[in-house]
Amino acid sequence: MRNFSKSKRIVIKIGTNTLTKDTGIDTGYVRLIAREVTELLKAGRQALIISSGAIGMGAGQLDLPGPAKDMKMRQACAAIGQPLLMQEYRKAFMRHGVTVAQVLLTAEVLSNRKTYLNLRNAIEKLLSLGIVPILNENDSVSTAEIGSAFGDNDKLSALVASKIDADLLIMLTDIDALYDKDPNEHADAQPIRAVFEITDEIARNAGGSGSRHATGGMKTKIEAARIASQAGCRLVLANGRDSDVIGRIMAGEEIGTIFLPKRKLSNRTRWILHSKPAGVIHIDDGAVGALRRNKSLLPSGVTAVEGTFKAGDVVMLNDVAKAVVSIASGQLKDLAGKHSTEIKKQLGPDHRDVVAIPEDIVFLDY
Questions:
Q1: pLDDT tens, 56-112?
Q2: 359 alpha-carbon distance from chain centroid
Q3: Where along the chain do its domains lie?
Q4: Are 169 and 4 in contact (CB under 8 A)?
Q5: Is 255 in contact with 5 (CB distance < 8 Å)?
Q6: Which of 43, 154, 270, 293 is deepest in the core (most CB within 10 A)?
Q7: Buried b (16+ CB within 10 A) or exposed e, 157-180
Q8: Left if phi > 0, otherwise alpha if psi is -120 to 50, otherwise beta: which for 318?
Q9: Handedness of CA 256, 262, 263, 269 (dihedral sign)
Q10: Domain 9-269, what fold?
């Protein structure tokens, strides 16, 4: 269960509250992380860091009295704080002769198949060179990311771990473990050392968002554990301020909470499942039943189309599934409710005569 001897590719997520002291970065802590990650590299492993903290560092640089609430100010703080954050990582890793690389992401990069593959290839190359990629959300240009899309990088870390086939995701936070009840409200709360399945009860007991400049909370960590599980990736949630925390986790010490994967979905299935849908195709009950029997989606089952999307985009099918479509939204509106033969009549004899094939349809209860 906690034998990580064969775990080669490790993703380490560091939360805002763990990384910072007051409103500035804790330089000493970054040096400790650099030393521990370097030990992973020396052991023949690959490491990738998902780092929060840019907004908090920017706010500290501006001497703001509290967390920035205005969206434009948060964007400004992110722009100011990101180079400062990278400067600290670069200096800390240079002490060990290790090179780091910066990668900034938005949800759109992960949702688009082409840009996702480009990202994957770039990270694969960096890791093969012994370089430590440091990823963060790009708050300066995509306001949708701030506080909602990735949840203080919790979801981002799981998506990245999933998309690069990581063996282990370590989430370093200011939380010791997952508890059976809120430890802030119940003195008898007990830590849960291993989670074999994320039940509805566990999801309900997850708390709200984080504090100060952080936007994560136990709820986003549970969501991250679900994503990691579908990739066959183990996730360990631990207190990032514990001494030699990474080394102790890798040695199998029972600290924090380990979330064990229930299954492993294919890479393409995971990409479809976690992509941001470009629109919605409404289908009738007969079509839903056919899809569950591993049939293609035909235009005859389409009742309405929402949004603007192109062939190859991921869309929602009602609220039950996601699919990669072979027909753009404008064309599908004209074909809705019609027989499959109309596709080739309108779009040409070489066009696929279905809206989506079974291999490109993933139910959300997969």
A1: 888 888 888 766 678 888 889 889 999 999 999 999 999 999 999 999 988 788 888
A2: 23
A3: 9-269, 277-363
A4: no
A5: no
A6: 154
A7: bbbbbbbbbbbbbbbbbbbbbbbe
A8: left
A9: negative
A10: Carbamate kinase (3.40.1160)
**Nearest alpha carbon to residue 317 among 343, 342, 293, 292:** 292
pTM of the model: 0.80
Cβ-based neighbour number of residue 42 at 10 Å: 10
Rounded Cα gap, residues 94 and 61, in angstroms: 24
β-pair partners for 264: 231
pLDDT tens per residue, range 142-185? 555 444 455 568 989 999 998 898 999 999 998 889 988 878 78
> Closest Cα partner for 33 from 123, 20, 44?
20
d(CA 144, CA 147) in angstroms, rounded, equals 8
Its CATH class, for the domain covering 277-363, is: mainly beta
Residue 40 CB contacts under 8 Å (≥ 6 apart), including other chains: 10, 46, 47, 246, 250
Q: Are 339 and 300 in contact (CB under 8 A)?
A: yes
Pull the structure tokens for residue 228: 């990691």
Using the structure block, give the residue that is written with the tokens 């409710």. Answer: 337
Buried b (16+ CB within 10 A) or exposed e, 96-130: eebebbebbbbbbbbbbbeebeebbeebeebbeee
Tokens of 121: 């290839």
